[in-house]
Write a structure and sequence with these properties.
With 318 residues, this protein is of the alpha+beta class. Among the domains are: 127-227; 229-314. It contains 4 helices and 8 strands, in the order ααααββββββββ. The strands form 2 sheets. A 4-stranded antiparallel sheet has the order 1-8-7-6. Strands 2-3-4-5 form a 4-stranded antiparallel sheet, with helices on one face. A hairpin with a 2-residue loop joins strand 4 (261-268) and strand 5 (271-279). Helix 2 crosses helix 3 (40-164). The longest helix has 125 residues, at 40-164.
Length: 318
Amino acid sequence: MEDKKDENVGFTPNFQTVSKTGPLEKALKKAKKGGSPNSSSGGGSNVVAVVALILSILLIAYAIYLNVQLSDANEQIKKLTLEAQNTETRVDEVEEKIFKTENKLSKQIKLTDEKFARLHEKQMNEVEKIKRTVAHKADRMEVASVKERTKEIISEVGSVKNNLTNVGGHVQKVDTKVKEVASKVEQQQKELEEQRKLIEQNFHNINATRDQLNKTKDVLAKVKMSIDRDYYVFQLSKVSGIIRVADVGLRLKKIRLKHQQYDIEIFHDDKKMKKKKVEVGVPIFFYKDGYRKPCELVVTRVEKHRVVGYLSVPKVKQ
């Protein structure tokens, strides 16, 4: 170990030194030392030129660096803009899916209500028929009872006549009375028959009048339903997304305040309708399934961030 240490101490590496002094370093050293009198002005000019060259190179490098950074920033901005557009498109699609789902649920609820209303109306009609049948039967039973009673009276009178034929001197008097009673009975029977016919005629007239009134009522109801419309006032803004007015979806896309125009999307019956550059007060007509008359949408006022108007819908399907 001691021999090895002595060998290492006595060893001196033979490295060849390389001069790293370039023209710029030599000019700077000469400028610091003062140089020779003949080369002082020339050396100073070289230093300034070299420094200016270095500054120019640095400025160019910095400009390139800034340009690279600016390009990266522009790429980031483009990516963010594209992501924002994709997000907005996805939001629109989600809103449209939600609206379609709500529309389907609304249709199912409306169909259930209509079925219930038809069932209730059918039950009420059956009750009315039963009432009319019972009343008619009661009238017939009353007339039949009168006839039956008349027959019984005639039978009793006939029986009395048969019994009185065997009586002596009082037979003629009794027979005369019987004839008078029979005449009265026949007269009463005729009056009852006339009253029965009059009752039946009145009952027939009442039914005919009732049917005519029902027909007139139905006609008036149809006329009234064809004229009547429901009106819904609405306010739309771009940030509100799809807004449900009655069972119609509305979404404002753009406002042109200077020209008093707007762009809008209308959703109904799983359909989507776009209208662009619509002016204030100009109606938009569209037909919903099951309606012969159109729905009408009118915007009456255009403001900076919203529009105001109304939706007119027929009350009854035709």
